[in-house]
Amino acid sequence: xxxxxxxxxxxxxxxxxxxxxxxxxxFAAPKPNEIxxxxxxxxxxxxxxxxxxxLTQLAKMGYRNVEHxxxxxxxxxxxxxxxxxxxxDDLGLxxxxxxxxxxxxxxxxxxxxxxDSWKYTIEDAGYMGQKYVISPWMDESMRKTYDDMLRYxxxxxxxxxxxxxxxxxxxxxxxxxxxxxxxxxxxxxxIMMKNMDPxxxxxxxxxxxxxxxxxxxxxxxxxxxGRFEMLHVKxxxxxxxxxxxxxxxxxxxxxxxKEAIDLGRKIGxxxxxxxxxxSYQTGTPLECMKENLEVMKKWGY
Length: 301
Description:
By secondary structure, the chain is α/β, with parallel strands linked by helices. The chain has one domain: Divalent-metal-dependent TIM barrel enzymes (TIM Barrel, Alpha-Beta Barrel), CATH 3.20.20. The chain has 12 helices and 17 strands. The strands form 5 sheets. The protein has an 8-stranded parallel beta barrel, surrounded by 4 helices. A hairpin with a 4-residue loop joins strand 7 and strand 8. Helix 4 runs parallel beside helix 12 and helix 10 runs parallel beside helix 11. The radius of gyration is 18 Å and the shape is globular. The two termini are 28 Å apart. The relative contact order is 0.15.
């Protein structure tokens, strides 16, 4: 694949608990409050060509939850909230989470309020029955300086309050720059974790994206226990590109993905596990998603 999700988004808008303890959860049944789903960016081309047909195939594979990555002009993949909800309902699918970038244009600094477009984003997410509204990118203009970061962390917290009124939570999904860039000699990721109110904003930890910057999920889960209600479950392989890595089928890469999600379950406070794969070394995207689901079930999720 030539375009990673990191490029797509930019252009468009530890502690191990012990081997014995980990092995005990290796084959444990999913807990009642846990959610296993798929980030639909994993099958973006299929969703673009045939959303209903693609969702139908995913449902037949055994997926019960999806996370959207396409909300434009109050439409999900070209359908209104009411239309898309009916499509999901008819297929027995739920959409507990969705990705929509919150940018500078969504916050009026003079009026100190969110734009109507962002309020609609929250409103439509609530209608869809989402539990989480996730922003998967932070524009460079929002993180030029340390003070810029602090200002936007305040906005993140305010968005958390807005979502809370609708019975949802606001969250942020990391890429790699959060671990490679520093402001006032502090990693952007650490600035975020120290200034986002955990009662209002969650971090959806992508265990693959961080690898590009040399960060490891096991370390981060141990550094901030209880802070990762959601994980983007991903594996990576080394490639000869500027980004150095690309995603692969779970268990076939170099990331200890199973150990990371087991640890998330143990000390991270993780209850939502979202599969994502952006690159495909063998097979079609849908074939890869079927294999990923089989791997997760084998791992006890």
